[in-house]
Amino acid sequence: MNYAKINRFTSLDTQAWISSQLQFDIDFIFEIVKSILIHPVDVKKYGIRYDRRKNALEHVLNNTVNKILSNHNLIPFLNQRKLPLLTKPEDRCILSCDHHALLFTSLMRNLSIPVRTRTGYAKYIVRDLLIPHWIVEVFDSNYHEWILYDPERCIKNVDRKDFLFANEAWIAKKNDPNMTFPSYSNSKDQQGIKYALISDINCIFKNELLGYEWRHNSFNKKKPLIVHNSYERLENEMKKGIDYAAESMYNPDKNISDIRAFYDKYIQEAVIGDE
To answer: How far apart are CA 143 and CA 125, in angstroms?
Structure first.
């Protein structure tokens, strides 16, 4: 899997000029991301009116970087062709941590740097709470290891002990059914963890926001059965597959073949109308 190569989710082809002004400077990349996006949690302090329930569809439809950059508020600033964009908070797209991670990933891949989005629960955003969150991993070729960054919070070198990956959350829940987790993408507790794990596996295969395409008919996709059904309604074989995939995700690079087999069997894309 070539994590340095752009795909349909991370393409910048509608604003190709951006690539020519990029440089491998994490702070600079953070600044670009934050000149384009603002998180819904942050809008209040700028007095920006926003109703997340009414605008939930915007999150689903903005599932690619090209779509984010087509926002009419951004066009005047994109036309100036200067990075970071010279926006004010009210000019930016109000989108969540997954979009921040996707945009950061796009910018890094346009520098041919291996990067991938990851899904789980942050321990560092609110003290003593697990917060559903997306971050990124950037591959350090000098040390041959993945380094965590948080584009939405603009944090470099996130300590792995401060981020609970989705597979770790799944296994923790299996070991202690009484352990509770916050809702993830409107799915509660175990169902939310299952969706987070499937989203993280999507990320490993560079289908970063494929999950959004399962939510709206305009994408002409069906939710895979493993997503559509609650965990309790899944067949035992599928439940065992989730457990095995969760264990394999402790080292996705080493276990990529096993994860791929699970992915192809249970999560592969389906088109509405297919038998």
So the answer is: 28
